[in-house]
Amino acid sequence: MKNFLKYTYMVALGVMALAFTSCTNDYEYDAPSATGQGGNGYLSVASSTDLFFGDKEDASFVITVHRVNSKEAGTIKLVSNDAEVAPQNEVSFAAGEESKDVTVKVACPANSQKTVTIAVADEDAFLYATNKINYNINVGKQFAAALNSELNEGISNVNVFRFKTQDGDATYKYVVDQPYDKGYYVSFSINFEKNTAVLYKQYAGLYNDDYGRIQMAQTAGSYDPATKTVTFANIKFSLPDSGYSFGTGTEVFTFDVAPDAE
Questions:
Q1: I need a surface site. Which of 21, 53, 64, 120 has the fewest CB within 10 A?
Q2: Average pLDDT, integer, range 28-41
Q3: Which of 59-63, 240-244, 255-259 shows the lowest mean pLDDT across its residues?
Q4: What single-letter DSSP state applies at residue 244?
Q5: SS3 content of the chain, % helix, strand, coil (to 5)
Q6: Is the pLDDT of residue 209 over 60?
Q7: How far apart are CA 160 and CA 257, in angstroms?
Q8: Distance (Å) of CA 148 to CA 75, 92, 153, 219
Q9: Coil, strand or helix: which one is 258?
Q10: Which residues pair with 134 in a beta bridge?
Q11: By three-state DSSP, how is residue 50 classified?
Q12: 139 in Cβ contact with 106 (< 8 Å)
């Protein structure tokens, strides 16, 4: 009797297993996506995304387009939210080609300051890498100047870009292109009726081993039209947003031509 029950139980289990197998074989599952990670393209940039251009130059910058899977030839589509800063619509890749540098032309008029987004089109965007980059595009009248700097301990040649401003009674705002450290800019304004200037509060970018990043306090200055020189004396240097000052210095910018020249 015990053997009979034993064998009957084993047969029943076998029938159930066959029935379950049959059910699972008959049911059609939806196949998962090949990757579940979006498209095949993403972006990178080697330089700063704060870009300054003179109004007389052929302005452009380079962005690098990458492919996750480069086994076969293919294309990656690019888009921009601004027609004046637009890359080519489609980037072609040969089989085995993993990345390609793309030149983006800037067709903004003088006195332009805007944020532009360059992105991989949604259908081609790889979701787990950078697929869009914001650029701060600045196109102004360009000047050359010599910076006599206590902060930088010497004289250096710098590029300065001019923009119209409505800040107080100033006529123009000037942005000095990375005078101390890469990626950091110095801004000031000039009132040519009063021959006064204002240095804005900002990071200088220089790194001090004792204090970290250095911040420059807003400082009143002067403009000498005879020498085309802007002087900011006794600028306070401090820890960022701490109010703790650890010294002062004088920065002098001497332009090659009058900074209000058209």
A1: 21
A2: 61
A3: 240-244
A4: -
A5: 10, 50, 40
A6: yes
A7: 11
A8: 50, 48, 8, 17
A9: coil
A10: 117
A11: strand
A12: yes
| SS3 at position 95 | coil
Which residues are bridge partners to 49 per DSSP? none
Strand partners, 91: 76
Ramachandran angles phi, psi of 55, nearest 5°: -75, -10
Of the candidates 217, 227, 203, 224, the one whose C-alpha atom is nearest the C-alpha of residue 249 is 217
**How does pLDDT run across 178-199, given as a tens digit for each residue?**
888 777 889 999 999 999 999 9
Amino acid at 55: D
| pLDDT class of 53 with cuts at 50, 70, 90 | very high
Q: Quick one: which of 255, 233, 258, 236 has its CA closest to 247?
A: 236
| Residues, the chain | 262
Phi, psi torsion values for 77, nearest 5 degrees: -90, 140
Asked if residues 144 and 159 have their Cβ atoms less than 8 Å apart, the reply is yes
